Amino acid sequence: MPIKRVHEFRDPLHNFIELDRQQRALVDSIPFQRLRHIHQLALTSFVYPGATHKRFDHSIGVMHLAQKVFDVLVDPANIHPTVEHIIPDRQNLAYWRSVLSLSALAHDLGHLPFSHAAEKKLLPHGEDHENLTLDLISSDLMAGVWDMGHRVHVRDVQKLAVGQKKLKNENFTTWESILSEVITGDSFGVDRMDYLLRDSYYAGVNYGKFDHAKLIPSLRILPESMGNGGSTEPLLGVEFNGLHSAEALLLARYFMYEQVYFHPIRRIYDLHLIDYMVSHYGANGYRKDVAFHLSQTDNEVMSSIRAAFGNFDAPGHDSAQAILRRGHFRSVYSYNPTDQEILQSAIESGSLEPDINKPLNSPAYQLGKILSKNFGEANIKTDLYIQGSSPALFPVLMPDGRVESSVSVSPILANFPLMTVDSIYASPTIAGDVRAWIAQERHAVLTGAVK
């Protein structure tokens, strides 16, 4: 019987996804099969019941989109004359397509149970899931994958899988930088494309949808800018006829964060899950070794949560109760631009003294400090997130052949909003009292009259 050289997965988003023998070997490996048991969105299914999809299917989708983008970028008809020099010769393109595909498959291997939820508090200081990804790629478990079919260099896979932001001290060629951007890029990374489409589909919402069938064929490697002394550093950009699809992608991301990822009940379940996992593993106690990591999935953590739920003396019992009995803390305060203006004025006038390394421009932080004193630290949780930068800046190839900045040709992207979470939650037994206190004392706290 002949060896089957093409394998297929039926995917609800991308229909049939084909894998060659080498890609199938990676999918069949123990580290990749573990991703069948890692939820893409932690406990989001407690709010959106359909959101039970896993890192396994997402990673296969990322590989599929990465191949599509690669084929568009290296099509001779799509290569901008200023970047021709970075494209490898045709005989080496097959190698880099294999590396990109395998890197896309491997990019999430290091995720802890329930994905991002508790990573910062569980791993040793300075470590993240990408370190575990790097370790797994170079482990003996994976060696046979890299040596079969199109033999690839392990370091090439690592570099594309985690990107230049992670490997800051590593030398990336311009070509490697572009390929890593295909997977991990802020604007057009296929990791982001797939998770928006997939999360939207499984959550049952429309916010994450965009016209990727139009966007991907319009992607190009372009100089950052042309003329007027601008940088000619090649970046992923888009032809002008794909600009609206690019806008739709970034708006889809914004709306998915605002409506799904930042949903207040979803966020508080994350906080309870983090508390439980810290009690289960210990603060910064998740062992960073391959064998231990491969033994830990959502199944083990959820089994532990169920055990703690029924044992009053078990570490994390209160968090387990909050998760399994829907006894989660209740939202008592959320972001309000008027409050932020009041707080900023108080800071500028000097009535509120700076607090080093703290988010002074956060009303929830200021209110949370006082609430913790008045109602007990165990009864109050503050949730803060302030987006650092916008992904809306990229080159656009205009119809006349010039290259312009996206923010100069798109009024939408020029005024693209940054995302903010500024929330307070309180124990359900006192939530009403906390809301009443905030209504009465909010202005005094934000102006510095109550400290």
Report on this model:
With 451 residues, this protein is an alpha+beta fold. It has 2 domains: 6-265, Hypothetical protein af1432, CATH 1.10.3210; 329-451, Alpha-Beta Plaits (2-Layer Sandwich). It is 49% helix and 10% strand. The chain has helices at 21-28, 30-33, 55-73, 90-106, 119-122, 129-137, 140-147, 154-162, 174-184, 190-203, 212-215, 243-261, 264-281, 290-294, 298-309, 317-324, 337-349, 363-375, 406-409, 411-414, 431-446; strands spanning 6-11, 15-20, 219-223, 234-239, 330-333, 380-386, 395-397, 403-405, 420-426. Strand 1 (6-11) and strand 2 (15-20) form a beta hairpin. Helix 3 (55-73) runs antiparallel to helix 4 (90-106). The mean pLDDT is 92.
Key features of this structure:
single chain; 451 residues; alpha+beta; Hypothetical protein af1432; Alpha-Beta Plaits; four-stranded mixed β-sheet; three-stranded antiparallel β-sheet; 21 helices; globular
The number of domains: 2
Mean pLDDT across the residues is 92
Order of helices and strands: EEHHHHHHHHHHHEEHHHHHEHHEEEHHEH
Helix content: 40-55%
Cα Rg: 24 Å
CATH topology of the largest domain: Hypothetical protein af1432
The strand count comes to 9
Largest sheet: 4 strands, mixed
Lateral arrangement of strands in the main beta sheet: 3-4-7-8
CATH class of the largest domain, please?
Mainly Alpha
Helix and strand content put the structural class at alpha+beta
CATH architecture of the largest domain: Orthogonal Bundle
Strand content: 5-15%
Low-confidence stretches: none
**CATH superfamily name of the largest domain?**
Hypothetical protein af1432
> How many individual helices?
21
Distance between the termini: 78 Å
Shape: globular
